[in-house]
Amino acid sequence: MRRRPSLRGLITHPRGKLSPRAEPYSPSELAELRSQFSPQQLSALLAGEKAIDRFDFEVKSERRRGDPFGLNYLDDLSTIDPIIDFPPTSAGFGKDSIARQNVPSIHDPELKYLEDDEEGDVFRKLSHRTGMPLKELKKLRTRLMISHSVTNQTRMGKIRKIYALAIAGNGNGLLGVGEGKSAESEDAIRQATYMAMRNMEPIPRYEGRTIYGDVEVKQGAVEMKLFTRPPGFGVRCSSHIFEMCRCLGIQDLSARVTRSRNPMNVIKTFMKALRSQKLPEVIARGRGKKFVDVRKVYYGGSV
Predict the structure, then answer these.
(1) Kind and range of the H or E element at 223?
(2) pLDDT, tens digit, for every residue of 86-124?
């Protein structure tokens, strides 16, 4: 008994290719189709051809391989869709005929738009705490010094967070160090920067360029020695101390760090060394003597 050919075999066979027709089938063509297909298959084919639009078969073409600008769908770009596309204006499709949709406006008298965002609100709080105007706060020099992940082991498992340490200064005697920790790196950096602005404090500088005398400080395993230098010497130290000197406004300084050189401890030790400077006025008061800067007296304080 001869087996009836399958639908897939007829479609793929070169002599049996099927394509939808615009006009209905003639009786002879229907008889030929009945000889090739079962009644169920023929009814399914006729229903499918009736449901599918003829235009979908006419625009069907093989996609060009290797074309990066080819569309991944079939569309006739020469016609304008009344729903998706925008009709052309009198100027055509030039510069002034960009498709724009009208944004619906909201007329609500109780609805008010705030000028400042969340960052502006934070700067206002910092201005209230530090007493500095908003313009000066936004001009501060900030620098991210350390950023790494930390893990806390709890009974619920390991909790991973991002630790950040930042510094802030105005380049004229103010310097602050801040720390932040959060699950997201951006939040940790933002928190550390705001804390550095909040923790800013005045640091004494000799002639506005260096420190008052040599300082030797030990904190934890870090041993640090700071040396005052003449004008034009520059800042010769590690990168972390160099960035802090830039934010503080020190131009002449040399530092030596022995033993541990952990970046976080080096930054905190340098901040401690700047606070522990021995000012000439304090030394004179401890010795019971009066201190007068002759240059300020004879030159009218212009030195």
Answers:
(1) strand 222-228
(2) 666 666 554 554 555 566 666 777 666 555 455 667 888
Report how far residue 189's alpha carbon sits from residue 180's, in angstroms, rounded to the nearest whole number. Answer: 7
Helix (H) or strand (E) holding 176: strand 174-182
**235-236 and 253-259 strand pairing:** parallel
Q: What is the pLDDT of residues 267-292, one digit of tens each?
A: 999 999 999 999 888 888 888 888 77
Strand partners, 255: 226
Which helix (H) or strand (E) segment is 118 a member of?
helix 118-130
For 237, the token pair is 């130290």
Is residue 159 within 8 Å of 236, Cβ to Cβ? no
Cα–Cα distance for residue pair 284/227, rounded to 1 Å: 21
pTM: 0.59
Query: Per residue in 161-172, pLDDT tens?
Result: 999 999 999 999
Token duo for residue 278: 């021995």
Could you tell me the two tokens for 295? 């240059």
The percent of residues in the chain predicted with pLDDT above 90, rounded, is 46
List all residues 6 or more positions away from 162 whose beta carbon is below 8 Å from its beta carbon: 147, 148, 149, 150, 181, 182, 183, 184, 185, 187, 188
Residue keyed to tokens 């229907």: 30
